[in-house]
Write a structure and sequence with these properties.
By secondary structure, the protein is an alpha+beta fold. The chain is built from twelve helices and 14 strands. The protein is flat and about 65 Å long.
Length: 433
Amino acid sequence: MSIVHSATKAQASIAEANPVSPDRYLFTSESVSMGHPDKVSDQISDAILDFCLTHDPMSRVACETLVTTDHCTVAGEITTKAPLTRQAVDKLVRDTIANIGYVDPNIGFAASNCQINNVIHAQSPHISQGVDTGGAGDQGMMFGFACDETASLMPLPIHLSHRLVEFHAELRRNGTLKWLRPDAKSQVTVEYHADGTPYRIHTVVLSTQHDETVMTKKGATDYFTDDARQMIIDKLILPVLKKERADLVKGKLVMVVPGTHPTLGEFDIACHINPTGCFLEGGPHGDCGLTGRKIIVDTYGGRGRHGGGAFSGKDPTKVDRSAAYVCRYIAKNIVAAKLAKRCEVQLSYAIGYPNPLNIWVNTEGTAAPGVTDAKLIELIGKHFQLTPKGIIETLDLRRPIYLATAAHGHFGRDGFPWEKTDKASALKADAGV
């Protein structure tokens, strides 16, 4: 069964300037930069988790962070032998904020003068009594997804969105675009064939905080200059698109100036850069940030389902995190084995109980000849350890590896154990294809 999406009247209306064939469809995903306030919170929570695991791999951590103007509150339940003093938390918070790039007190949030409120306390013993015996740290359902659209086996829109904000951070840090500030968001729309294969890159949105040097006035209104917009297109967007999928860049990248509707050629890519007009005030001063509020950015950009549980600040006994990682590991190995072009996996758990309550697989009709979703469920049960203890051991999760996950996506980047495809050969052999 192939996925067929007819262009709706609404879509046709929206895309009049950049038309879409009726036998194709559009899909969009977004990402946010490491300086986005929610990601600042995620990174602080995971920095504290990594500190605890460095000193005590058996630490139980559920750490939440809130950031706003000149303020950071760290809260949650942590039981650890690590020296997690108030001074240690203070240093972890300030070091993380500085590493992200918030070092100028004049912009409303900076490592040096941020007020830190620490209200961390110990975990409930009633949770521990179930987890200590190998049970799950919470109930819930978790999903993983993989597809063959990219080398990383991630959906193309979220993959490109992540790469844009990742390169944004690189250009900011190396001084190529000195006027960039840490807060940014990206969004990529891809046009697909009816069978779910990418046809072209359709639209890119990139909003970035900036300093005063790239501002002008239109009447009494502050305005981000069009010259700066063009620099974003030429130095940031175009290199990323060309590097990742040059074959899908089929036309020119056309700047959409706020308030205008440019005429686009059939294959031109509309680029909306700071479409509100100006983005001087940003980061935690511009918007309050919270841990766990970017769960779709963290996963598959809306392409696969989401169980609802956030990742950052949670140790691996929390299946919200570890089971979502193993679901990705399973799905990626199935696609890497060419047993399906697309694969979504669900597991669910009861708090304190070790075995998953269910295993569910959906290959969207893309399974290899002779392979069924039911057969894949059988193979998953045979080749993967799915208890919390088994997941932790398989992926070696009691290590300080989590701060690196808290910006630019938890999936689709090399170096994380759930991105390995070491099970693919065994799965393929056992499937008999």
